[in-house]
Specification:
The chain contains 13 helices and eleven strands.
Length: 344
């Protein structure tokens, strides 16, 4: 340590007495922890949370992570007696929200709810990112997973994936597909569809899935790959048509839908959502937080609320979530190489 810092600390500790000396020692201990990159210690029996917790969602209002984040936040608030407040921060395919959590105080009062995009998609597809999931974050658990669905304007008059492919081939340049941002599962889903179905549908980036849906309803785009959480409420109104699910197998929550793979063999695209904390968050905090997350995700009302959105809860340990993230990065990177997909 710098001699000037040591000298300052030593002289001021000796000059302080009683309670003021104790306060100074605690202040210096925290300061040294920050200087050396270590988090301040927290006793295992210390209460948490004792004030509102901010959940930054790296997607727009109305997106799947936002909806799931609010379901989870409401339950955590009820369980702990402290407010868990959802704060959507969309932009740059989720990087804006991720960076806010990365630079937040590592005290358990700022958390990240993100999707496949920020945990695995962007790290797999972009050579330069402002964050590193392994270095900057402590993954806590998945929230849920879901197969996407393929949605088109009802006005197109197509009712199957095969019909849509024929329509695109017969009307070149007259159909485009909106997605929730570069590197998102919906972007990758559209690029894979182009490659595997041998069509050329322009992929139009938006800030979030809800914004794409608004333009699909308005007729500005003709196709969208998105989660059932976003699509199914609008499908009931008859203005859009859900053609298929993008999982490798039929979705048990949407048994009436065929898979895209039945028309485009080998096609598969799914997404998932999870919770993470800044890397230096104390173990005592993350242990308590993880216990509350599992309690919430295993509660019957949350399971049913998530299921009603077309998703399945996926509570797991931090170690299991970390392994899953790494496996997903490798899987997405492999798919991108085989399909010739890259983004910068």
């Amino acid at each position: 340590m710098n001699r000037e810092v040591t000298g300052f600390a030593s002289s001021h500790v000796h000059q302080a007495h009683g309670p003021s000396r104790c306060r100074l020692l605690r202040t210096l201990a925290v300061g040294y922890g920050v200087a050396f990159g270590t988090a301040p210690l927290l006793a295992a029996d210390s209460p948490y949370p004792v004030r509102p917790v901010r959940i930054i969602v790296s997607n727009a209002i109305g997106s799947s992570p936002d909806i799931l984040g609010r379901i989870l936040a409401n339950k955590l608030t009820a369980q702990t007696g402290q407010q868990f407040v959802v704060d959507p921060r969309a932009g740059a395919s989720g990087v804006i929200g991720v960076d806010l959590v990365k630079t937040a105080a590592p005290d358990g009062y700022t958390l990240l709810v993100g999707s496949t995009t920020v945990f695995a998609g962007l790290p797999a597809l972009k050579s330069k990112l402002s964050y590193d999931i392994d270095r900057d974050f402590l993954p806590l658990t998945r929230i849920a997973s879901v197969a996407n669905v393929m949605v088109v304007q009802a006005a197109l008059g197509v009712t199957t994936v095969a019909d849509f492919i024929k329509h695109v081939q017969a009307n070149p340049g007259k159909a485009n597909c909106g997605h929730a941002g570069n590197g998102t599962p919906t972007h990758i889903a559209g690029l894979l569809f182009n490659t595997m179905a041998k069509v050329d549908i322009p992929q139009i980036p938006y800030k979030g899935a809800a914004q794409v849906m608004n333009d699909l309803l308005a007729g500005h785009v003709q196709c969208q790959f998105t989660s059932p959480i976003v699509a199914m409420p609008h499908a009931k109104g008859g203005r859009i048509r859900v053609l298929a699910t993008t999982g490798a197998k039929p979705d048990p929550l949407l048994p009436e839908l065929p898979t895209v793979a039945e028309t485009v063999p080998g096609y598969e695209s799914t997404q998932w959502f999870g919770v993470a904390a800044p890397i230096l968050t104390p173990k005592a905090v993350t242990s308590k937080l993880h216990a509350e997350l599992l309690r919430a995700l295993r509660s019957p009302d949350v399971v049913e609320s998530v299921r009603a959105q077309g998703a399945t809860v996926q509570p797991e340990s931090p170690a299991a979530f970390s392994r899953f993230i790494k496996e997903e990065r490798e899987r997405i990177a492999g798919l991108a190489r085989s399909a010739g997909i890259s983004i910068e």
